[in-house]
Amino acid sequence: MEDPQFTVLLTDPSPGGPAALKAVRAVTGLSLWHSRQLLNGAPVTAREAIPFATAAEAAGRLRQAGVPAAIRCDWCRRTLPDDGTPVGPGPCTSRAWPTAHCQANSLTTCDCEWCTAYGPLPGHTTP
Asked: Which residues contact 33 (CB under 8 A, 6 or more apart)?
C-alpha cells in the first residue's frame, strides 16, 4: 500500500532574520534570494510530496528558527497541529488509504481487510 505524501507550508510571513533564511535554504535547497521571497510571500508551499518523517523534520527546523510552518497531508488535506500531535480521526478523503492508516490522524487500531490479512501497520493494533 502506498504511503501518503505530505506538504510543508510556510503559514505566515516571517521577519526573515539570518536563522530563518538559513532554515528555509536548508529545507528547500533554494538560493538566498528565493528563500527570502518564500519568507515574504507566505502563506506558501516550501516542500511538496515528501514522506511524513521528512516533513516533520523540515517543519521542526523551520519552527525552531522562528518561521511559522505547518504540515498538511496530501491525501486527506488536513493540517497537523504545530505541536506535532496527530489530528483527530475525522474522515480521510483518500479513496485508497483507510482512515486509520493516515499518519495525520490519531487512530491506533484498524480492522480493515489489509490489516486483518497481513497484520497491523507499525504503531497500529487490530481490535
From this structure: none
